[in-house]
């Protein structure tokens, strides 16, 4: 697990990178929020409860990309997705507001993706080690499952496949990440997220 010194280094990196990126992201962010509001006829900012560090709930911010689904049910997502929303999700631009999650300290640039209640908060034993990490915008499990939506749509029972195959694998990947953390690896994951 990360030492206190490592956690401090990670936090300094998170804040510094966010401050550097924010001036370039603010205009696209405001533009996309406005477009989402017009296209979807709802508030362009989507707020949802997710499980964060130490299993505590927090508010995650995204640009709204769906007409009515809850951003959790893959079938409902596809049934309520517009072409604009599909583009937002495929480019990951819907996650731009998470810069503010990083700045206020509820998220990190790199870490386990924040899950809805019913997953990370129910971890037991050694698996709970990953709850010591702040959830991340990207990370090794996020990169491995960057096409998770398409993978789940191929399954007869997407929820069962997620719960029995994808979720346990993500837990194992995130445990390894927490045990082998380095700032260099975080920078590598961010670079791969941008350029892959």
UniProtKB/TrEMBL annotation:
Domain Bacterial sugar transferase: 10-194
Transmembrane helix among keywords: yes
Coiled-coil segments on the chain, per record: none
Any one GO molecular function term: phosphotransferase activity, for other substituted phosphate groups
Keyword Transmembrane: yes
Residue ranges crossing the lipid bilayer per the database entry: 12-40
InterPro entries associated with the record: Bact_transf
Record's keyword terms, sorted: Membrane, Transferase, Transmembrane, Transmembrane helix
Family note: Belongs to the bacterial sugar transferase family.
PANTHER family: COLANIC BIOSYNTHESIS UDP-GLUCOSE LIPID CARRIER TRANSFERASE, QUINOVOSAMINEPHOSPHOTRANSFERAE-RELATED
The protein's name in its UniProt record: Sugar transferase
Organism of origin: Rasiella rasia
């Amino acid at each position: 697990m990360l030492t206190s010194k490592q956690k401090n280094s990670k936090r300094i990196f998170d804040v510094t990178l966010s401050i550097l990126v924010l001036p370039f992201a603010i205009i696209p962010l405001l533009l996309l929020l406005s477009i989402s509001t017009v296209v979807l006829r709802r508030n362009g900012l989507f707020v949802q409860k997710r499980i964060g560090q130490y299993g505590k709930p927090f508010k995650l911010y995204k640009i709204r990309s769906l007409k009515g689904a809850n951003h959790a049910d893959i079938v409902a997502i596809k049934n309520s997705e517009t072409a604009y929303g599909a583009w937002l999700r495929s480019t990951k631009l819907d996650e731009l507001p998470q810069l503010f999650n990083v700045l206020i300290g509820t998220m990190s640039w790199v870490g386990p993706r924040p899950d809805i209640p019913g997953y990370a908060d129910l971890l037991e034993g050694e698996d709970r080690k990953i709850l010591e990490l702040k959830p991340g915008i990207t990370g090794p499990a996020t990169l491995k499952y960057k096409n998770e939506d398409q993978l789940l749509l191929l399954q007869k029972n997407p929820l069962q496949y997620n719960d029995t195959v994808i979720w346990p694998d993500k837990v194992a990947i995130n445990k390894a990440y927490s045990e082998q953390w380095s700032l260099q690896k975080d920078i590598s994951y961010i670079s791969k997220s941008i350029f892959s």
